[in-house]
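Sequence and structure are kept together here, with a separate record for every protein. A complete record is shown below as an example:
=====
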Amino acid sequence: MKSKRNLLIALLVVLSATFNSCATAQASKNKQQYKVAVCDWMILKRQKLGAFGLASEIKADGIELDMGGLGNRPTFDSKLGDPVERQKFLDKSKEVNVGISSIAMSGFYAQSFAKRESIEQMVNDCVLAMKNMKVKVAYLPLGTQSDLTKNPELRPIVIERLKWAGKQVGKIGGVIAIETSLNATDEKKLLEEIDSKYIKSSFNFANAVDNGRDISAELKILGKKYIAQIHASNTDKFWLEKDPAIDMPKIKQTLDEMKWSGWLIVERSRDVTQVHDVKANYGANVAYLKKIFQN
C-alpha cells in the first residue's frame, strides 16, 4: 500500500513539473518581444483552417488571417461573420497554439480604397471580425489603385476615409495598419494628418528596398508610435537569410533601440527557383527571423 502511495506521489510530482514547464514556456512565448507570423493567403491557405496547422509545422507563432476575396462584391467573401465557422478558427488556433497576428483586407491590393463604394460595410465587417476574434490589428494595403505616390490627387479622400475608419476601429480599441508606397517621412506626415491613434503603419521591408531606401533609417523616421506591425520580407528572389539587400541584425538592433515590440510577418522572400514550395520558403524565413529576433 505504501509503495503504491509513493508511486502516486512520484507521478504527481512529475506531472506537476511538466505542467509548470509548459506553463513557463507558454508564458515566455506570450511575453516574447517579437513574434513571427505568415500571411495565410501567401501560404495558399486563405481563410482555411489548414493555415494554422501549416503555420505550426513551419514553427510560426501566428498567421495574418485574411478577410477573403473582394472582387465586385459589396464586401469580403468571408467566413468570419458566421459564428459557427468563426469558432472553428478560434478552436484550431488554440489547439495548435498558433495565434492571429492581424486580420487582413488584402482585397485592397488590387481594389481602390479611395473609390470603391460600400467601404463602410467592408471596414465594419473587418472590425466586427476583430472584435469577435479578439484581434487588435487589421492590415489595410492601399495597393496599386490608391497608391498615393502615383495618384496624389486621391490623398484627400483617402485621409477622409481613414479618419472615419479610425473611429470605427477605435470603438473596439483596435488599430488599422496601413501600407503605402510613401517613404517614411511622407508616411509619417500622412499619419499625422489623419490624426488618429487608431490608424498606424504596416511597415514593409520590400517597399523600402524596391525604392532604394535604408530599412533601419526608415523605421527610425516612422518611430515606435506609428508602427503597428511589420511585413518583414522582400519581393521574391532570395530567402531572407541570403538576401544581400536586408541587414537583419542591424534591423533587430534598430527595433531594440526603439523599444518596439510586435509581429514580424513573412509575406514573400521566396526562392524563385522553388517558388511554389511553401514549406521550404516559409519554413526557412520563419526560422531565420526567429534565429535573429528570438534568441
